[in-house]
């Protein structure tokens, strides 16, 4: 994998300006990408190193949330992982690794391995009000139409969106019987096409919109965030887009953050992201790893599962604050607890936990 383009972008600093097309490695289309630059096959030596590091981490006796990078030593692979994270943050926004040794690990060992592996990319943050720093993307049989349900705990499609973190890392343990494809699109390229076709909507989406917090806030706190969909900060472009949270803020709280009908602007983002020449899709298989710089856009298609809870599609998920990433609009830190730097979902007194299965 070549890091040169991302390194050049990092060295040059930000040059993105509102009302002008975003240029650089983040503004990609599938036609401009070479799969050899974003897909990486782990070598037998690297796989053995992961297994050995897992044994070492288990032998420390520490609970998973208390593990440190030093507890998961990857002397050969570690520098590559750090490079992949820089490539994601400063380059195209994603990388895929294949061959993580899920077939050589129990589910509990895989949980330890995945958490330790992710520490080489950044610092894990809480993914929900329960303080989970190790997440499970698995159908719990919940109703996706319930406004308080997080869609990752269902088999429903997840439209184009971002999460509340800097890096999203997924490890596939089991696949569905059908469906469940992952998709990525450059939010910068979406912005560029919208700017060309509807500059009025592109400008509208740089103003604050309300995003529902899905009752994961502390009692008495404001139950929504006000954030711009498109942000330009210190010359860097970012995107915070989650149409479900935006529609819920309007339906449940009577807040959309803007006057008038905002539906055309929101729909335009999804419509452009859906254009076949703009996005990539990938079917994650067991042992596949997906690392995403969150301020791009990702989605998942609907899926049908196998019978039996233990056979269901199952991905381990980490939300991470990156060790080295472009500066971020302070508005996007709205979910952080008072006085706490970083992202994630926190209530006062949140304690990190790492369940070994979905709950």
Automatic annotation (TrEMBL):
Lineage at the top is:
Eukaryota, Viridiplantae, Chlorophyta, core chlorophytes, Trebouxiophyceae
Species assigned in the record? Chlorella variabilis (Green alga)
**Keywords, ordered alphabetically:** Antibiotic biosynthesis, Oxidoreductase
Q: Does the keyword Oxidoreductase apply?
A: yes
> What biological-process terms (Gene Ontology) are attached?
antibiotic biosynthetic process
Q: Which domain of life is it from?
A: Eukaryota
Q: Which InterPro entries match?
A: AlphaKG_dependent_hydroxylases, TauD-like_sf, TauD/TfdA-like
Task: State one molecular function term (GO).
Answer: oxidoreductase activity
Residue ranges annotated for the TauD/TfdA-like domain, each copy included: 62-319
Task: Supply the PANTHER family for this chain.
Answer: GAMMA-BUTYROBETAINE HYDROXYLASE-RELATED (PTHR10696), TAUD_TFDA-LIKE DOMAIN-CONTAINING PROTEIN (PTHR10696:SF56)
Q: What is this protein called?
A: TauD/TfdA-like domain-containing protein
